[in-house]
Amino acid sequence: MENQPKFDQWADICEDVLYEIAQRIHSSVDYVRFRSTCKNCYINLPKYFKHCPLLLLPSDDNKSESLRQIFHPVENKVIDHLSLPGAKDTVFRGSCFGWLIMIGTNDTIRILNPITKVEFHLPPISTSVGVSGYDPGRYDKEYTIRGSNGVTYTFAKWFMQRVFYYKIVLSCPPDDENQDFMAVAIAQVDSSTSLCYCRRGDEKWTRLTESKGLLLYDVIFHKEKIYAVCALGSIYEYDMKTLRGGLSRSPSFDDNVFFTADVRTYLVQCSGDFILVVKRVPIGFYKNKCEGEFDDEDEDEDEDEDDEEDEDDEDELQTSRFLVFKLDESQNKWVEVKNLNNNVLVLGYNSSCVLPHAISPNGRGNCIYYSDNWVESQTKYLSGGYDNGIFNLEDGTIYPLFPDRDVIDPADIT
């Protein structure tokens, strides 16, 4: 009997050892299970732990729209299936701290934990800035929007669901009562984009940015501040508590860098530095004769290829390359970088983040993992889901996330 193994020794493991074990768990799903092993784990381990993001995919069973596969990039396989309550006819417009932000066609915006199934509601679409009316009985004209010029317009619920909100991020997990919770959205207001926010318990969205003509593409939280980046790389900064702020800096670029319409910009905080990521589709972002990467002949060839691609399939928007810049604060300038110090960037509708290569998919560093977040390709008539892949920053090659899938409709769980 003395040699009989003990099955209750988890309770005796010290906190440091538990933390070391937790660091070696690559899946948020497995972490939730591990933390639930015993009272000792539950008390001593944090509720949320930074892991490699997972990817939600549609189920192989087309009859069940609420059932989603979980793809684990590190293991390169589907590891589980999740039932997402109310996922039918919803779109994903954010993922933070393991929570999904889902917008429905029934005027709802929900925050759902895909593991525990706990959910919270953000103010509905009908309380958004500029929305003056909502009538679910008016087919294809459910929403009324009043412009700053006093003119009213009507929009269908599918448009408001898919296009009105570009991205939503959270300051903290919605169930953490010890932190100041805030949700910030990039929304379409008066033919431009604007930051709108709500706090815990708010019944409507409130506009944060008043400037007209803005084209914002990404927003993040960092040290109780809100940072947003526009299409040209300018950064807008606001204090979470006082809401004071505005245009913070407009860093310059080298003379051989310029923008056109077909780009997306992302803002990432990495070890105290701002990182700007520029994603482009063909005919969008060019560097003029820089180190031989592009010349006039190359541009002509790109344009010819792009025209052929457009004729073959106008529904597809495919990323052709990324450029990455680091902010030089002393010069107020975006400086291009070719190395992420072996880190990995994860971009999409998720909160833009950086991961050490040790917990990155396949352990590969200096790469950008991206999923489809071209809002233009996710309307009623264009399905979207084509633009997913892995970009190698060192040699510029792109690998498909799923070679055996033509179209997916993914959402990152970060």
TrEMBL record:
Residues 72-391 form the KIB1-4 beta-propeller domain. It holds the Pfam family Beta-prop_KIB1-4. Residues 293-317 have a biased composition (Acidic residues). It comes from the Eukaryota. Residues 292-317 are annotated as: Disordered. PANTHER family: OS07G0183000 PROTEIN-RELATED (PTHR44259). This is F-box protein SKIP23-like. It comes from Senna tora. The lineage of its organism: Eukaryota, Viridiplantae, Streptophyta, Embryophyta, Tracheophyta.
